[in-house]
């Protein structure tokens, strides 16, 4: 079984000037214990469901995928935010680099994968340009069934399917709410294959639901192993969850308002984007649960080692002391290659080392450099990147963010701050019921030519 270890040495005063004291960490851990207790209550009462996802019966998904294997050259995933970021993080971590450039045979008769997430006409044009409708499966993901970006992209893809196929509906999977929503109505009307997102699982917590599991299975990933890893976190890692939540809480209390996630592997770059949504939407809240104004939240930043040693590290070391950095280290790197630098004597010191060793040496060097500058960092160490470890990583961070939010007396499961912008957009689009927002926008979206150059 794979592992994830927490190394928080360089957050503590024993090793770091002005680091956390044992008493400070224990105080935050007490708060985290209350947050975890609140979470367990919400979970037991089925108010929040992501921790129950490892119990999900995958047989229907696996049977559907098995029946369709070899039929499709391309998979287009249509979704945005929580309906896209997690799936993309999984595929970028677990599929070969440059996967779409492999031949059908090299891919094991599995489809290429494309993400129609943003409403970017250039991107969507070239996705469809590269695909043939008869060889394409479209997976539409939206919990509400009405996400404007997803429905807009799907409308164009559906038109493309309809123009090229006698039965476009057999080339569509829908992943949405189990009971309601216009997309479910459309799917049931046309006998389209559907998978349900549990009603108590929010979008940013849904990567281990059919949102992430269906596309992962289509692409040949071992979803059972992914769920096994997630389940181990649920059953056996409460102490790790408490410690990591307590560390984050401690530095939030200290006013460090930037939270950097920095894996030392390119395979987890998209994980940083997923984590940014999870952290931002869950913890960025104006009000506590009792209505007190708090303006909680810190800003997540994604970085990748060793690349961003050459771009962001200068700021992290010598800039403001407003950041906590979470490194991700791999115990082993797939296809690790020995460096052969005998072509010039200047580089002979590299010979005999491997790329994986170099990556980890650079991480350790960065840790020490930041420690000497009094800048705190912690580290999650994974034995490698596979389905089990990825399942663990997703579940661990979902737990930690949920517990951190509940410990701060905020609701980490809603996102009221994004609603008004949606409503203004609906008004501009002429959606029924949003005429007032259209008028409000027209009255208040005012700018002066004085401030244009």
TrEMBL record:
It comes from Flexistipes sinusarabici. It catalyses: alpha-D-glucose 6-phosphate = beta-D-fructose 6-phosphate. This is Glucose-6-phosphate isomerase. The keyword Cytoplasm applies. Keywords: Cytoplasm, Gluconeogenesis, Glycolysis, Isomerase. The active site is at 281 (proton donor), 310, 422. Pathway: Carbohydrate degradation; glycolysis; D-glyceraldehyde 3-phosphate and glycerone phosphate from D-glucose: step 2/4; Carbohydrate biosynthesis; gluconeogenesis. The keyword Cytoplasm applies. Its EC number is 5.3.1.9. Catalyzes the reversible isomerization of glucose-6-phosphate to fructose-6-phosphate. Belongs to the GPI family. Its main location: cytoplasm. PANTHER family: GLUCOSE-6-PHOSPHATE ISOMERASE.
């Amino acid at each position: 079984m794979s592992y994830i270890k927490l190394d928080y040495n360089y957050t503590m005063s024993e090793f770091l000037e002005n680091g956390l004291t044992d008493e400070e960490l224990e105080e935050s851990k007490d708060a985290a214990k209350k947050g975890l207790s609140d979470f367990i209550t919400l979970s037991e009462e089925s108010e929040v469901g992501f921790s129950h996802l490892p119990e999900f019966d995958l047989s229907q998904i696996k049977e559907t995928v098995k029946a369709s294997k070899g039929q499709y050259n391309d998979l287009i995933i249509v979704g945005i935010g929580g309906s896209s970021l997690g799936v993309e993080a999984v595929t970028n971590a677990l599929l070969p680099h440059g996967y779409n450039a492999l031949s059908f045979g090299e891919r094991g008769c599995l489809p290429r994968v494309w993400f129609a997430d943003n409403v970017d006409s250039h991107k969507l044009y070239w996705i469809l340009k590269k695909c043939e409708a008869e060889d394409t499966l479209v997976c539409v993901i939206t919990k509400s069934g009405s996400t404007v970006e997803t429905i807009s992209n799907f409308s164009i893809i559906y038109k493309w399917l309809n123009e090229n196929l006698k039965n476009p509906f057999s080339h569509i999977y829908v992943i949405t709410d189990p009971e309601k929503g216009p997309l479910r109505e459309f799917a049931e009307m046309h006998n389209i294959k559907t998978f349900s997102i549990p009603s108590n699982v929010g979008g940013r917590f849904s990567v281990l639901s059919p949102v992430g599991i269906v596309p992962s299975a289509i692409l040949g990933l071992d979803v059972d192993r992914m769920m096994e890893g997630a389940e181990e976190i649920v059953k056996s890692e409460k102490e790790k969850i408490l410690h990591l939540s307590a560390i984050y809480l401690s530095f939030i209390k200290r006013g460090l308002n930037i939270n950097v996630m920095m894996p030392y592997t390119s395979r987890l770059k998209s994980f940083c984007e997923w984590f940014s949504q999870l952290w931002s939407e869950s913890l960025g809240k104006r009000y506590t649960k009792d209505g007190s104004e708090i303006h909680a939240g810190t800003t997540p930043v994604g970085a990748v080692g060793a690349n961003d040693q050459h771009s962001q590290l200068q700021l992290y070391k010598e800039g403001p002391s407003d950041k906590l950095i979470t490194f991700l280290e791999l115990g082993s790197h797939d296809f690790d290659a020995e460096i052969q630098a005998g072509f010039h004597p200047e580089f002979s010191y590299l010979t005999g080392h491997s790329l994986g060793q170099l990556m980890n040496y650079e991480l350790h060097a960065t840790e020490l450099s930041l420690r000497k500058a009094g800048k705190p960092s912690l580290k999650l160490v994974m034995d490698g990147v596979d389905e089990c470890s990825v399942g663990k990583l997703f579940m661990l961070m979902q737990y930690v963010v949920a517990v951190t939010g509940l410990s701060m007396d905020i609701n980490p499961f809603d996102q009221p701050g994004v609603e008004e912008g949606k409503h203004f957009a609906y008004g501009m689009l002429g959606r029924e019921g949003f005429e007032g927002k259209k008028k409000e926008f027209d009255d208040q979206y005012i700018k002066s030519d004085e401030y244009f150059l």
